[in-house]
Amino acid sequence: MVSKNQIKLITSLQQKKYRIAHQLFFAEGVKGVQELIDSNFELVHLYTTLNDFENVSPAIRTMVQDQDLKKISALATPNSCLAVFKMPIEKEIKTSGLILALDAIRDPGNLGTILRLCDWFGIQQVLCSKETVDLYNPKVVQATMGSISRVNVNYVDLNLFLSQTQLPVYGTFMNGENIYQSSLPSQGIIVMGNEANGISQEIESKITSRLTIPKFGAVQKAESLNVATATAIVLSEFCRG
Amino acid sequence: MVSKNQIKLITSLQQKKYRIAHQLFFAEGVKGVQELIDSNFELVHLYTTLNDFENVSPAIRTMVQDQDLKKISALATPNSCLAVFKMPIEKEIKTSGLILALDAIRDPGNLGTILRLCDWFGIQQVLCSKETVDLYNPKVVQATMGSISRVNVNYVDLNLFLSQTQLPVYGTFMNGENIYQSSLPSQGIIVMGNEANGISQEIESKITSRLTIPKFGAVQKAESLNVATATAIVLSEFCRG
């Protein structure tokens, strides 16, 4: 059973203002939930239709029916379990290695997919502009597939941060140096821009190295790449050595 | 105004069986619609809240209000116009150059994003297994951002096709040759697998070259990449030369 108050609390966590007010967020699905339980995140309560999760104390574990899960889930097709976690305290920014900076990424699926990529490529620090979608949006959490627990994400005044850094700042544009022929460092900041508008003018003025992903083929009509796939190509080039 | 019969027809096109029955599909949004109008696709009717599209005959162009568009749209937030097109006749499979084969890609956003990538990298032929999501699903059409008109897509018995081809067949796995150190041809078939299960056993037996995208960093906990981002990295490696 899930009480009316629990339903009200959990569904409210779909909205950022309530996540901030309660300092809570939730994750869904066995794989993602298990990864967060195994991480440093603090589990508040687990609701599950399954008989596993035996490592979770019964005091904070409730067996529920499918119809109960449906009442608290953000998914059209709920996925066996939902877990509420405390929002961790924001850690200090790591300024070594490669840093990925996101300038107003709006789509939660894109942010989640990009964090999963960072986890794969060993990028430990992501900086989000204040206009970027919230990290604890349920769709972001879902799309990270557990990577949210392994990548350090900070929301910053990106323009100010880039004004003060000594690190080289890379960005991709339609015109720039061919990324496949560029010498790319193991330390620096890579900026990826908004889905519709790319990198904003303000941020563009802080870019020290303009890169381009060249198009191939005879026709070349595609105008742009999805930001997550562009990030995949850029990170692959920086990391492949 | 949009008549009740038009609303019924267009909303029915959200389902594959009705798309096949009517041999029609629809696209939404100015950019995507304009690209399809400018392509070889045959426009049946355009519904728009805007005063442009003057190149479209008034006989097949209806000005509508936002509330009418909402009744026919598949989007939560309709995007100024919706256009119904004839489903084109499937073209012959092109067996030159690089071919991308999709083994049961289920998510419409992933298929659309992958077609946009193919357009960027000049991949002219995509083969979808019969289990792959339908090309004319409105979410696929949307995510291609117009690339649907420039990439040739055929649905085939993928296992049979791969059994009969003389071309090398590449696939990515957790174990395989490091893709960054492999010599990759300009002719061949690249197989990408299902979101949850990867390449199926049946298809795996047809792979002639196993590749892997290596992980980086100290922790290496990420288990997998999203299929669209993995496709981005693989196509980038095949094309970068």
Please give the count of helices of chain A: 9
What's the main sheet of chain A like? 6 strands, parallel
- Fraction of residues of chain A in helices? 25-40%
The overall pLDDT average of chain A reads 95
What's the arrangement of strands in the largest beta sheet of chain A? 7-6-5-9-8-10
Structure, explained:
The structure is a homodimer of 241-residue chains. Chain A is an alpha/beta fold and 241 residues long. Chain A has two domains: 4-86, Ribosomal protein L30/S12 (60s Ribosomal Protein L30, Chain: A, 2-Layer Sandwich), CATH 3.30.1330; 98-240, 3-Layer(aba) Sandwich (Alpha/beta knot), CATH 3.40.1280.10. Helix content of chain A is 32%, strand content 22%. Chain A has nine helices and ten strands. Chain A has helices at residues 4-12, 16-22, 30-37, 66-72, 108-121, 138-144, 158-164, 201-204, 227-240; strands at residues 24-28, 43-48, 61-63, 81-86, 98-102, 125-129, 152-156, 169-178, 188-192, 209-212. In chain A, the strands form two sheets. Chain A has a six-stranded parallel β-sheet. Chain A starts with a helix and ends with a helix. The model of chain A has no long low-confidence stretch (mean pLDDT 95). Chain A binds chain B through residues 109, 113, 116-117, 119-124, 143, 145-147, 150, 180, 213, 215-226, 228-233, 236-237, 239-241, and chain B through 109, 113, 116-117, 119-124, 143, 145-147, 150, 180, 213, 215-226, 228-233, 236-237, 239-241.
